[in-house]
Amino acid sequence: MNRIIKLFNDQPTGNLNVYFTAGFPQLDDTRRILTALQEGGVDLVEIGMPYSDPVADGETIQQSNQKALENGMTLRTLFSQLEGMRETIHVSVLLMGYINPVVQYGIEEFCKKCAEVGVDGLILPDMPMDVYLNEYKSIFDSYGLLNIFLVTPQTSENRIRQIDEVSAGFIYTVSSASVTGSQTGVSNDMESYFDRLNAMNLRNPRLIGFGIKDRPTFEKACCYSQGAIIGSAFIRILQESNNLEEDIKNFISEVKANKRTEIGV
Amino acid sequence: MSEVAEKVSFQVNEQGYYGVFGGAFIPEMLYPNVEELRDNYLKIIAEPEFQREFNELLRDYVGRPTPLYFAKRLSEKYGTNIYLKREDLCHTGAHKVNNTIGQILMAKRLGKKKIVAETGAGQHGVATATVCALMGIECIVYMGELDIERQAPNVARMKLLGAEVRPASSGSKTLKDATNEAMRHWISNPVDTHYIIGSVVGPHPYPDMVARFQSVISEEIKKQLKEKTSRENPDYVVACVGGGSNAAGAFYHYLDVPEVQLVAVEAAGQGLTSGHSAATTALGKPGVLHGSRTILMQTEDGQVVEPYSISAGLDYPGIGPMHAYLYDSGRGRFLSATDEEALQAAFELARTEGIIPALESSHALAVLDRLGATQDQVVVVNLSGRGDKDLGTYMKHID
What we know:
By secondary structure, chain A is an alpha/beta fold. Chain A has helices at 3-10, 30-40, 59-70, 75-82, 99-105, 107-117, 129-142, 157-166, 188-199, 215-224, 232-240, 244-256, 259-263; strands at residues 15-21, 44-48, 92-96, 121-123, 146-147, 150-151, 171-174, 206-209, 227-230.
């Protein structure tokens, strides 16, 4: 069974997914960060494939992408870094990125590599649903890769149903109309949007992302969903860190802080 | 005895594609906005009241129809019949305003209260700021930090027109980054804001919508050429291509007329092999850029390459999906002109016809001797803009 599906079966609440950009701060930090995240207690990890023009990302993640590219990160390098990760890494791993580098790598070859190194799912925000269904889904399926779709506060109910229908794993619930790294927190507007999603009784679990940055925002998000995603706030930790392992573990344990026993219903 | 030729159309299909190019490769955050536009743009454009207002503004405000001018001395020089479509005489100095007039009327009908746009050289930014002032609508223009330095007069124009110019400081700080920033702004302001894209790029329906607004260029060429030569189809239509909006407008009504050769001229910069070029079809590969599947300049790893041209309006790493299809299918003939060739063509037009062209349009003029046009043939060159904004560059290079 796909690790992501198993995760939500076994542990339906309080899941923490953390994003980091491959090749940042240093080219060879990928495995160190991955290992520290797992030891800190994350449930899913989203590894960003750096891109020159990340339109859905705010300044923090843009800069980490740019730095990673300057450091020489490529998909080939990333796959070689991830080779053999499943000997020690048991948390769910997703790759997140924009579609052009994936297309240039070759969709089939890319999916094959993902399966070989043990990637569980993909988040490609600029891949249209019709292109996915008509051209890529059968390839993703044959390599056991889940494709994660996004919904936003502006997504119509019809489209949410459609996304739920073609999704597996979880639905990435974008908290507000913004790019990543916005400082909005969780507002009343968002709560009614989250309630609306809850009331739809979707097939898939939901993780809330954008604006989640610390324990209070994580816990708040967990009240409305099966967990949440932290990206820009974690990139800032990496940016400022002199001791990656320690700072990562401290950050994760602070965010999760026995979360499941406190809120777990 | 003759087989019925399969009717191929170079117009966009119902799914938003030109062959394999086009589509809407956008994050979900932009989906509702783009969907709203996609579901409404054809209906709105077809409304008689929209048509009336659009045509009235093109006539009384922009100054259309622009002349189709027979360039006698230039024709003698090249041994053919050269007509210049004088888009340089449009209000604001280039064809860009045809599109911004159309889009501001579209935005009003969609109930949008604010406008965001990107600009490279500043021509589209000025054209957008102009129509926003005309309609009393708030306007934000993203412009690369480097371009703000390079194009100070246009920055001043936009400010004078009441627009807010925001520097795009990400990436390479030029047009592609201004486009990214405008898209991010739209993601963050999805309900009340319309994004006026300046070229035939972006997710469907933008390439088709912008092409339709620019199609007035070839509509007029047909009519004017008929009056002057008693034939409505020239042998060649020549236009420069950055994103490709002036070319799309000049080609539009000739797309499905195979006897008209469509010549697109890209900016070769310092030369195709110099590493400083913006000749997308010569140097690029198929991929995804700014919301559509097209041809773009990129590394082997699929990272977008920063292009170079002396002309800021051609300094773009992709081309619109319509042009990608024209190139891929062989319907369009794609040439390129270097910085130096464009400069010489500008000086030549200034001295033979008394017209100072924009650096962008000079690229189209630079290939006249390569067309193979004969004495009895007709060449239409789309003179997309005037050269006032380029005087500084011209003075630096003049002999």
